[in-house]
Design a protein that fits this description.
It comes from Mesorhizobium cantuariense. By secondary structure, this protein is an alpha+beta fold. The chain contains 2 helices and 10 strands. The longest helix is centred in the middle third of the chain and has 12 residues.
Length: 138
Amino acid sequence: MTPFHLAFPVRDLDETRVFYGQVLGCAIGRSSTTWVDFDLFGHQMSAHLRPRAAQAPSDGKVDGITVPIPHFGAVLLMDDWQRLATRLEARDDIDWLERPMVRFKGEPGEQATLFIRDPSGNALEFKGFRSLEQIFAH
């Protein structure tokens, strides 16, 4: 699998470094006074300083549950997802949108999921699968 790159707006680089580096455990890559790169489970995420970037709220429905649009995140194997979920649940400073749960239980593509917001209000989803072959199962 090849990594993807995503550039996204943030209001403050210092709080973004703390959240992605310390809370999520991402390695920090190159940076400048206006952006910083993170290794999010092997993918290059570039946080760009945009203090006044407005995000229009919007929602979608997945398996009958409202989810924020847009959002980004990572697909993980279940053991990695469980470690992340446990790490996040142990903190009292997480902005939860959807606590850890299982979607499509007993169906093809069954997956664990959780949604959080970063300090800039960006919605992140982390999915866990028992096998990566299940990502596109239907």
